[in-house]
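Input (structure):
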């Protein structure tokens, strides 16, 4: 579980509720009609924007914001260097046994199996690039769901506010009700901003970050697979892949090489 996502949502909601409780009561900010306009309207907008099957994937998409295996670029580099050493020493066909015995990323296994089968380098690279492009499109579609929620929730909050103002202005004869009516009208704007800024937009940003990390990991794998397929020296493979690591990760690789 991504603890940062959980802590962020709890902290965001907690700070808003805390600020309310300092000078008032939570019940003042509870209004069923306002919540219906914002939440129902946002859902309606998403259903209009996307096909039903796509919109229903939102539960699986939001799960990725809370539960996702981090991309370990350092592990990828270490695995590719090890496989490059095996291929250099025993030939690329020997990698078949190592792939069967080890737990490697399926994307890496796919590329190396094509190399073992003797596929042309251009075919291998094109296949992996196409797979990566498909992954990026799928991630973009999932992120778009929450981008749209973040865009439409405040808009429906404003619609609810306008509805409340119209109803309030239609009853100006009752001056005592103007204050409470205005408060209820503004609650929908509050709900819309809360949904957008504490939930939808942060999750969209988290999904975008996850996607960028996964794409970077896949690009690293493509570079490593193509280098192994070309028969590069393991040291050359290492140098090509070091560009994908930060200084701390590079130090780990260099220390392991010195220790070896």
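Output (sequence):
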């Amino acid at each position: 579980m991504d603890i940062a996502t959980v802590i962020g949502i709890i902290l965001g909601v907690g700070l808003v509720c805390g600020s309310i409780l300092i000078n008032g009561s939570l019940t003042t900010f509870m209004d069923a009609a306002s919540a219906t306009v914002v939440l129902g309207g946002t859902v309606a907008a998403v259903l209009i924007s996307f096909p039903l099957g796509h919109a229903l994937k939102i539960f699986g998409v939001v799960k990725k914001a809370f539960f996702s295996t981090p991309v370990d670029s350092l592990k990828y580099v270490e695995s590719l260097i090890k496989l490059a050493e095996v291929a250099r020493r025993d030939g690329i066909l020997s990698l078949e046994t190592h792939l069967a015995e080890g737990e490697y990323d399926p994307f890496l296994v796919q590329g190396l199996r094509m190399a073992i089968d003797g596929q042309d380098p251009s075919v291998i690279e094109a296949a992996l690039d196409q797979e990566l492009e498909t992954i990026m499109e799928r991630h973009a579609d999932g992120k778009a769901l929450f981008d749209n929620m973040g865009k439409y929730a405040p808009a429906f909050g404003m619609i609810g506010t306008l509805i409340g103002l119209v109803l309030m202005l239609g009853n100006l004869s009752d001056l005592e009700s103007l204050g409470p009516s205005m408060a209820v009208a503004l609650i929908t704007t509050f709900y819309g901003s809360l949904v957008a800024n504490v939930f939808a937009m942060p999750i969209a940003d988290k999904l975008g970050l996850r996607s960028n990390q996964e794409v970077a990991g896949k690009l690293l794998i493509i570079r490593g697979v193509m280098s192994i397929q070309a028969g590069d020296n393991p040291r050359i493979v290492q140098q090509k892949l070091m560009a994908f690591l930060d200084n701390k990760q590079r130090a780990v690789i260099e220390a392991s090489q010195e220790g070896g």
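Notes: The mean pLDDT is 88. The longest helix spans residues 178-229.
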